[in-house]
Amino acid sequence: MRGDALAPASWRPGALFHRQPRFDLIFLDPPYAMLEKPASKEKVFDALTTLVQEHLETPGYLVLHAPR
Questions:
Q1: pLDDT band for position 60 (50/70/90)?
Q2: How buried is residue 41: exposed, middle or buried, by Cβ count under 10 Å (0-12/13-18/19+)?
Q3: How confident is the model at residue 63 (pLDDT cuts 50, 70, 90)?
Q4: With 60 as the cut, is the pLDDT of residue 17 above it?
Q5: Does the N-terminal peptide bond of residue 59 adopt cis geometry, omega within 30 degrees of 0?
Q6: Which residues are 27's β-sheet partners?
Q7: Is the distance from CB of 53 to CB of 16 less than 8 angstroms?
Q8: Are 10 and 3 in contact (CB under 8 A)?
Q9: Which residue, among 17, 44, 19, has the nearest Cα to 30 in the 3D structure?
Q10: Average pLDDT, the chain
Q11: Distance (Å, rounded) from C-alpha 49 to C-alpha 43?
Q12: Residue 2 contacts by C-beta under 8 Å, 6 or more apart in sequence?
């Protein structure tokens, strides 16, 4: 599945899912500029928190691609 990871519609029931989706593996590759600005960085980490708490299977993996 591909979509905007910060848009809840991408990982909530809708056209692609009939129930709350659970994932074994989530890749997140936000634009690096989002991780440099405090306001957008907070949005990325809020999305990460929600994805892990509500959508990541146990055990599961979340991969965040970010600059060093």
A1: very high
A2: middle
A3: very high
A4: no
A5: yes
A6: 63
A7: no
A8: yes
A9: 44
A10: 82
A11: 10
A12: none
**35 neighbors 25 (Cβ within 8 angstroms):** no
Its pTM stands at: 0.69
Percent of the chain with pLDDT over 70: 79
Kindly write down the DSSP assignment for every residue of 20-64, as one continuous string: ---EEEEEE---HHHHHSHHHHHHHHHHHHHHHHHHEEEEEEEEE
Among the listed residues 7, 16, 14, the one whose alpha carbon sits nearest the alpha carbon of residue 50: 7
Instruction: Using alpha carbons, select from 8, 52, 11, 39 the residue that is nearest to residue 64.
Output: 52
- With H, G, I as helix, E, B as strand and everything else as coil, classify residue 8: helix
